[in-house]
Design goal:
With 420 residues, the chain is an alpha/beta fold. The protein has 2 domains: 152 residues, no CATH class; 237 residues, Rossmann fold (3-Layer(aba) Sandwich), CATH 3.40.50. The protein contains 12 helices and 18 strands. The strands form 5 sheets. Strands 1, 2, 3, 15, 16 and 18 form a 6-stranded mixed beta sheet that branches. Keywords: Signal.
């Protein structure tokens, strides 16, 4: 059989390779659509509206019981580019809480008095006198990965050379010799935004380090297993970086509260605290999981709207105090050093605006021949220079009969595939 003819289109600095007469179909390195189908099938129908005849407390209890399956749906939707659907699924249990909480007076006063500073500039300025920057993410919010990518570019310029991430599963750094992320890197790097972050880091010369604790080390009661994981993560970072390089400057990308720098009220010690104890280094702990927009505004942090009232809050920012420190809100004063606050990004071309402003991508039409006649289809764009096992540069979910979103792509040459 003769190979398919190849047509290359140049569009605004982007070369897109179209393979005629058809496009590649199949799961590729990761079966996104099959994973989405399975995740959604694990959530009972009542989660998406069938509980409306139940009292609020009963609905909330029912949803809390399935919070883990809902989180799996959120991650699966994020992987296919459905960021709004991801957040909506994740927020469902909390939306049944009833009356929205109000911000405390002292926090509101602190917000009113504090000047705004660009978040990237503030973190980089603080990082100059540190050896370690820890920044977290919500695992269903790719926007946090886009911000981390932008931050990593600037930290590299001031001498940071090690990128450690919770999701990296392979300690064999030889895997990075390919120069692109594939399915073996880790679970959350199946997200195209996360993969692009790591691809950029490898291109910029970062040393990629895994540090997750081995499952065999996590035994005992649930509390003991958590402690073993946190302690094991910190120990791996020490052994794999600081014991070998006494001058190492490290960016650590974690999930949620693993970055906390102080013991929690219940006595739990997180990885960030253990790492400080083991290294005696001065570190910067940056939270970006509290203050960002949700599809249902009642799920947002009660202080978020007040933060958005600050002038010049059109890009991610932090709040300064009078002594050039940073305002920490909502009871987090002992646990992090600054909060990143995200603006309320609009949807443009069916995609979140941060893909343009943070990830620096541009919208491009999906080739009409790839659109589904019925049902849902995942449209995927891969860099031509990457191997067949690469993670896509972009995924976008298209449903027949609904408005067609656009691909969001950086500069480069791309091939297309789809999954039904």
């Amino acid at each position: 059989m003769k190979p398919a003819a190849k047509v290359v289109l140049a569009v605004t600095g982007i070369l897109i390779a179209l393979h005629a007469p058809g496009y590649a179909q199949g799961p590729g390195p990761y079966p996104y659509m099959e994973s989405l189908r399975k995740a959604e099938a694990d959530v009972p129908a009542y989660a998406f509206g069938a509980t409306s005849d139940k009292p609020t407390e009963q609905r909330r209890a029912m949803l809390q019981r399935i919070s883990s399956p809902l989180q799996a749906v959120a991650v699966a939707r994020a992987f296919v580019g459905d960021t709004e659907g991801a957040q909506a699924a994740f927020d469902l249990p909390d939306l049944q809480a009833g009356v929205r909480a109000q911000g405390k007076a002292d926090d509101l006063k602190a917000i009113e008095d504090a000047p705004v500073e660009d978040a990237i500039e503030a973190i980089v300025a603080a990082a100059r006198t540190k050896r370690v920057v820890l920044i977290n993410e919500a695992h269903h919010v790719p926007m946090h990965r886009a911000f981390a990518q932008k931050l990593a570019i600037e930290l590299r310029k001031i001498g940071y050379t090690y990128l450690a991430a919770e999701t990296f599963q392979e300690r064999d750094e030889g895997r990075t010799m390919k120069g692109y992320v594939n399915a073996g890197f880790g679970f959350y790097t199946q997200d195209p935004v996360y993969a692009d972050f790591v691809n950029q880091a490898m291109a910029d010369g970062w040393n990629i380090v895994s540090y997750e604790a081995s499952p065999e080390s996590m035994t005992g009661t649930p509390a003991e297993q958590i402690d073993a994981r946190e302690r094991g993560q910190a120990r791996n970072l020490v052994e794999r970086i600081f014991a070998k390089d006494k001058k190492a400057k490290v960016l650590i990308f974690v999930g949620y509260g693993h970055l906390y720098k102080s013991t929690l009220p219940n006595g739990m010690v997180m990885m960030g605290t253990y790492l400080r104890q083991m290294t005696d280094l001065d570190m910067l702990h940056v939270d970006q999981t509290a203050f960002y927009a949700h599809p249902d505004r009642s799920a947002e942090h009660p202080l978020y709207e007040a933060l958005l009232s600050k002038p010049h809050a059109q890009a991610p920012f932090v709040l300064r105090t009078g002594d050039r420190g940073h305002v920490i809100l909502g009871g987090a004063r002992n646990y992090v050093d600054m909060h990143v606050v995200f603006p309320r990004y609009a949807l443009r071309h069916g995609r979140p605006e941060w893909l343009e402003t943070l990830a620096e991508r541009r919208p491009h039409e999906i080739p009409p021949a790839m659109l589904p006649v019925s049902g849902r289809r995942l449209i995927q764009a891969y860099r031509i220079s990457d191997g067949a096992d690469a993670i896509p540069t972009d995924n976008v979910l298209v449903e027949a009969g609904k408005p067609v979103p656009k691909l969001m792509l950086p500069k480069g040459e791309f091939r297309f595939a789809f999954q039904d």
